[in-house]
Each structure stands twice: as C-alpha cells, then as structure tokens.
Amino acid sequence: MKCRHCAAQLALSMLDLGSAPPSNAYLTEAALKQPEKWFPLRVLVCQHCWLVQTEDFARAEELFDAEYAYFSAFSSSWLAHSERYVADIIASAGLGAGSHVVEVAANDGYLLQYFQQRGIPCTGIEPTASTAAAARTRGITIVEDFFGARLANELVAKGLQADLTVANNVLAHVPDINDFVAGFALLLKEDGQATFEFPHLLRLVAGNQFDTIYHEHYSYLSLSAVTRIFSANGLAVFDVEEHPTHGGSLRVFAQRSDTGKRQRNGRVDELLQREQHSGMLADDFYARFQQAAEGVKDAFLAFLLDAKKRGKSVAAYGAAAKGNTLMNFAGLRPDLIEFVVDRNPAKQGRYLPGSRIPIFPEAHLRERRPDYVVILPWNLRQEVVAQLAYIRDWGGRFVTAVPALEISDA
Q1: How many CB atoms lie within 10 A of CB 158?
Q2: Dihedral sign computed on CA atoms, order 94, 95, 99, 101
Q3: Which of the ends of the chain has fewer CB neighbours closer than 10 A, N or C?
Q4: What are phi and psi of 366, to 5 degrees?
Q5: Residue 410: what pLDDT?
Q6: Residues near 82 by beta carbon (within 8 Å), at least 6 away in sequence
Q7: Alpha carbon of 278 to those of 203, 209, 272, 275: distances in Å?
Q8: C-alpha 177: how far from its chain's center?
C-alpha cells in the first residue's frame, strides 16, 4: 500500500487488530441471520510524511451509508463544547448576519444550531441520510454529499463561499485526504478561515487509546502530518489549541495559503517541537503500541472471565464505535457482556457489529440491575457516571478498560 498523502510505500506497522466489521454497522434482527462483512484492521505509518493510516479495504460508501447511526447531539458534554466554540469563534472572527458558515460533516446539526440561533447564515454538508434528516428537523440547510474539490467547486459556482468552515472529527474519516483538504481552500473566501478538530495522535499513543482505531478512521493525525498535508493542498496552519475531548484533541486553525494574512501563532511551532521531541518522527514511537494494546485486551478479558466465574453480571453503556473495536479485538460475545444500553433510538433494538450483543434503552439497566457496567465511551466517563449514579442503589460498579482496567464505585 502507498501513503494516501505522499504516495510513499508503507512498510512500518503500528498496530494489527486482526479483523472486524465496520464499527458503526449495527445489526437488525433480520441481519443476524445473514453473514457480516469483516475487513482486516491494520494501521501503517508513512516514514516519509508520518501520516498514520489504516490499510485500505472498505470503501467510504460502505462505512457511511443511509443507516449510519452516530448522532452527535446525544452527548451533553459535546454539545457544551460545541456551543463554547461557536461563542468563541464568533467573537474572534467577527462573524455576523452578513457572514456564512459551512460545516463539513454537520451530522445532526449539533453545532450549526448554535450559529443559527445567533442569526448567522449557515450550511451543513453531510453525506449520511439519517443524520442529514435529523439536521433538517432543526431547520438547517443540508447538502447531502461527500465533500471534496468537486463539491467545493460546485458550491462556489452557485455563489456560496465561506467566511468560516468547520470540520469536527471528520479529517480522519476521509480516504482521499488531499482532495478533501483542497476543497476547503476552494470554498473559503480570500480572508476566510477554517477550523478542524481531530483526536491528537500523540495523546492516542500516550493514553493507549487503540480502541479509537476502526475502519471509519482512515487517518490518525499529528500536527506535523497535518501541517504538511495542508501546505500541499492550499492551506496554511496559523494557530492550534489543545482540548480534552475524545481523549485529547487538537483544534487547528487554517487559512488560504495564497491570500491569508494572519500571523502564525507561536503555539504551532511549540507543538511541532513537542511532537518531534516525543519521537513521533521516528520508528520507535510506533513500534511499542501493539504490545500496549494487547495488554489492555488481556486485562479486560481476565476481568470478564473472572466475573463470569463468580456469577456476576456485566452490562455495558454506550454502543460506541470505540467499544466495538475493543469488543471485536477481544473476541467478546453476549456470554461475557449480556447487553449494552444507549440513549440513541437509532441504535436501540439492534445489535453490536461482530459481537452481536443486543442494544437496549437505558431503562433496561434498572430492570436487570447488573453487578458491573462497562463504560465503552471512556472519554465521556464523568458524564456517564453522573448519569448512571443510580446503579449504586443495588451495589453496581463502573468499569473502564482504556487506558487501563479500572473498577470503581464513582
């Protein structure tokens, strides 16, 4: 395989998780009687541009189809994060009623609703029919298509250019990252700016967050790699912020390379130097990750087998994609985790891909009163513990597996 950015031959392996079905391909009752598509799940490192990337097997259309079931607005902490961003960027960029904001991967309108509430015109681009429909119920204009240079040119030809483009947790999801980034350079006005948020590879490795690796994530991003990719496709990074979301994320600010006038903030070079000093531009940084991931899997399996031996019941909260990576890497089935609950109605009544563990509404926890509740979206642990505090009424305990096994009452 060749690097999806620079086309160099890939030889360095960071992680091999065996194989798994797409992490958001939740199963219906009828689908249980059919075979599932499983794809190898292996992550490679480009030793030329240091872009970390999954080996190509599944097409984007197979991963982000009409039944795609990830809806951003079900997390209260993510909504709060998004609303803070909107307030901050309106103030810093001087946005108003004469501006236009375009969000790529607008999902269910979780973010654009806050621009709309402030009277700022906005458009969302979202290829998945299920989330696009949810955004439209919020009154948001949605272009239902995959984004890239083609769509950007079509929008510009129709007179739409953006003062601000937003791309949260989507840069990792695109198979043709060069075409995707080039689209932003085309869509922005001469003095416009773009912001991108994505999990930081440095935090992923430091926190042993291997479960954030799945087929829908084609790339795993450092600022070093992103700066190179942007520069090659008409964008210049001028600022960066670090945020705790998704286990540690970057918010990168960029402008058109040909017309942007903003000075580069010193934070950019500081973080680039930190990445270099951490070893991210050398092979050894990536070579140790396989053993760390296997250690998490082994500890989690040992806990589940011991709980079963002691006659304890185990359920899970959050039918999250990262949870499916963990479940399928560990080879779990309903004999070890009986069920999972989720607040998203689109997932309820379905089954996790691969493990085929059933998904119920949260009320099922109160009915079954499990001894342990595994929090699969560990990045939302604080939010989930507060939400499920009532499990203590029957002596239930919380479990997280990443970055290391933790069992607690709080």
Answers
A1: 8
A2: positive
A3: C
A4: -65, -35
A5: 67
A6: 72, 110, 111, 114, 168
A7: 11, 17, 10, 5
A8: 15
Q: Which two tokens stand for residue 159?
A: 């007179």
Quick count: other Cβ atoms within 10 Å of Cβ 264?
15
Q: Which two tokens stand for residue 255?
A: 């402008």
Q: Give the type of residue at 112.
A: L
Tokens linked to 324 = 């499916």
**Structural fold of domain 72-286:** Rossmann fold (3.40.50)
What distance in Å separates the CA atoms of residue 248 and residue 378, rounded to the nearest whole number?
A: 12
- Give the model confidence (pLDDT) of 368-389 as tens digits: 999 999 999 998 999 999 999 9
Predicted pLDDT at 68: 46
Tokens of 315: 């359920």
CA end-to-end distance (rounded Å), the chain? 46
Can you tell me the mean pLDDT for 5-13?
97
Is 162 in contact with 189 (CB distance < 8 Å)?
A: yes
Asked if the domains 72-286 and 289-408 are classified in one and the same CATH topology, the answer is yes
Where helices occur in 347-410 by DSSP H, the ranges are: 363-368, 381-387
pLDDT at 66 over 60: no
Distance in angstroms (rounded) separating the CA atoms of residues 26 and 28: 7
Instruction: Give me the residues paired with residue 406 across strands.
Output: 400
* Residue % of the chain over a pLDDT of 90: 89
Question: Of all helices (H) and strands (E), which one includes residue 374?
Answer: strand 372-375
Token code pair at residue 360: 């119920």
Whole-number pLDDT of residue 57? 64
Taking the domains of the chain in order of start, what are their residue ranges?
72-286, 289-408
Per-residue pLDDT tens over the stretch 10-34? 999 999 999 999 988 999 999 999 9
Q: Give me the long-range contacts of 87-92 (CB less than 8 A, separation at least 24).
A: 87/114, 89/164, 89/195, 90/115, 90/118, 90/120
pLDDT of residue 65 exceeding 50, the answer is no
Bridge-based pairing state of the strands 122-125 and 141-143: parallel
Q: For residue 129, give every residue at least 6 positions away whose Cβ sits within 8 Å of its Cβ, in sequence order, or none.
A: 66, 68, 144
- C-beta separation of 327 from 337 below 8 A: yes
Nearest-angstrom CA–CA distance, 194 and 281 = 26
What CATH topology corresponds to 289-408?
Rossmann fold (3.40.50)
Number of C-beta neighbours around residue 409 at 10 A: 10
- DSSP single-letter state for residue 159: T
Q: How far apart are CA 256 and CA 236, in angstroms?
A: 6
3 state DSSP class of 272: helix
